[in-house]
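User: Predict the complex with 9D3.
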Amino acid sequence: MRFDVVTLFPEVFPGPLAAGVLGRAIAGGLIRVEAHDLRAFAGDKHRQVDDIPYGGGPGMVLKPEPIFKAVRQIRGTATAPCVLLTPQGRALDQQLAAELADQPRLVVVAGRYEGFDERVRTSLADYEVSIGDYILSGGELAAMVLIEVVARYVPGVLGDEDSAGSDSFSDGLLEHPQYTRPAEFEGQRVPDVLLSGNHELIRRWRAEAALERTRSRRPELLQPSRRTTPPLSQPKES
Ligand code: 9D3
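Assistant: Here is the predicted structure with 9D3 placed in the model:
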């Protein structure tokens, strides 16, 4: 899968995407990340990519022409959906990531300043995506997050034992607590069941712990409308 990123800061790519599991996928040619300097698509000698907002007000708005030019030239004759990163977009989650991973190619546009001319949204973008309800200074970190989350769905990117579809989050629950040695650390014991060797008991303890943690921290994840697999039924009191 190929990601073309349009940005005013192409030098920050691939950044952390070059580390670990994704770095191997990039080195192996399974994933490509190409950064394109938006300023190279500016029409004038001052390479202006932004302008003052019609109607007045503070800040600058990204002009439509350089962005349309960039996305069209990068696409060439290929088809590749255009993903616009904005605070107003659809919240990125595993479901959207899996949908985007069905594409062989995405053109990802990272903004700066106060945002994009509305015509970029209405006539160029196929998806408008946010990575969460907090304020970033621009779309570059959001682009990296999106690329990492999507690329993990590309077959072969994760090891064979692992896969995006078997991640704990793919059942819609938070992960159960995990422990490693020592069995006691600063007076805190690892739960006996995990040392018992009884794999059926361990499986049930983990399922219950995941459910309880989700109930206490992220109850909205348990709404039936968002679930992929049903939660295990509560053990009956005896
Ligand atoms: C404080 C400025 N805001 C009010 C005028 C608007 C604003 C514009 C541009 C706020 C942030 C940004 C830059 N953000 C992104 O480009 C961005 C983003 C984000 O800030 N949060 C979550 N997801 C994303 S995706 C792109």
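The first strand starts at residue 2 and ends at 7.
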